[in-house]
Amino acid sequence: MPIASPEVYAEMLDRARSGQFAYPAINCTSSETINAALRGFADSGSDGIIQFSTGGSEFASGTNVKEMVTGAVALAEFAHVVAAKYPINVALHTDHCPKDKLDGYVRPLLAISQERVDKGRPPLFGSHMWDGSAIPIEENLQIADELLTKAANAKIVLELEIGVVGGEEDGVVGEINDKLYTSPEDFLRTVEVLGRNGERGRYILAATFGNVHGVYKPGNVKLRPEVLREGQRVVAEKLGLPAGSKPFDLVFHGGSGSAPAEIKEAVSYGVVKMNVDTDTQYAFTRPVADHMLKNYDGVLKIDGEVGNKKVYDPRSYLKKAEASMSERVIEACNDLHSTGRSVTAG
What is the pTM of this model? Predict the structure, then answer.
């Protein structure tokens, strides 16, 4: 199947919400990691989301070019070509983009998709994330309001963050404090400014409940999924919706290393997308390290020898990396109960 069209992406999100499951959103930085994600989704019979961060996109453009938009477009175009060979749907997304990078990343990418849509083509991406967690909520929502209009015009879903995800990702640092827990007031203010989801354009909400980027030992991160339940409750009440309604499609950031019970509870409160990066990075790198250590005298030309081309050929270890990372993607699909639930399966 091709990359998910706006209509298929909307169906994916609707099915996740109604079916109480979520999609893994896998951060990719190269063609090889995209291949790993696609393989994992396909082997699971799950639709999924592939996403590129600002740093990942810059890296993908090459260490000499170092342009976020160039890298993001290159990765997206590669994904469009290769995903067509798989029997599942994949949405393309861009991850955390803070205020100082909007003009160099999200806004140009929105313009590219708008140009495509104006010519009768699908947008290049299915969704973009605006990360205003480092600025006051009112400014955050003001920018989100502007971006939502542009995203809707380009048939793109907007992701925004209220509250702060702790830890660090691509230079975006979130302090570990009370802002790790989105307040009911912030949930209410979001719907006041942006309207009910879909009213002016579709958006997904990264609300925080103790999330931290990276993996920490048990007990170091205090997740409180009930924060999501309360946020949904107060907004449903404000909108006059029946008890138990979930007006927001929610995003779980910092999903690597989370316990299955925590994931299950978060999904029950309306999470439809969970970001996975740290765990898949490790899964990709671990077999490469193993290959190098076991073939030390083959990957290096030691004491005047010539080494062993079969083991220093990058394909020899990147195939292992792809297989390992795809297994971690399968695990994420199982944890989020998206396995076997592709739109293409009916």
Answer: 0.93
DSSP alpha helix (H) spans, the chain: 6-19, 31-44, 54-60, 68-83, 106-118, 137-153, 184-194, 226-239, 260-268, 278-294, 296-299, 309-312, 314-336
DSSP string, 271-326: EEEEEE-HHHHHHHHHHHHHHHHHTHHHHS--TT----HHHHSHHHHHHHHHHHHH
Please report the sign of the dihedral spanned by the C-alpha atoms of residue 307, residue 313, residue 314, residue 317. Answer: negative
Active site residues: 95
Q: Is the dihedral of CA 188, 192, 194, 199 positive or negative?
A: positive
CA distances from 56 to 9, 72, 75, 314 (A): 23, 8, 10, 20
- For 97-145, write each residue's pLDDT tens digit: 999 999 999 999 999 999 999 999 999 999 999 999 889 999 999 999 9
Residue 36: strand pairing partners: none
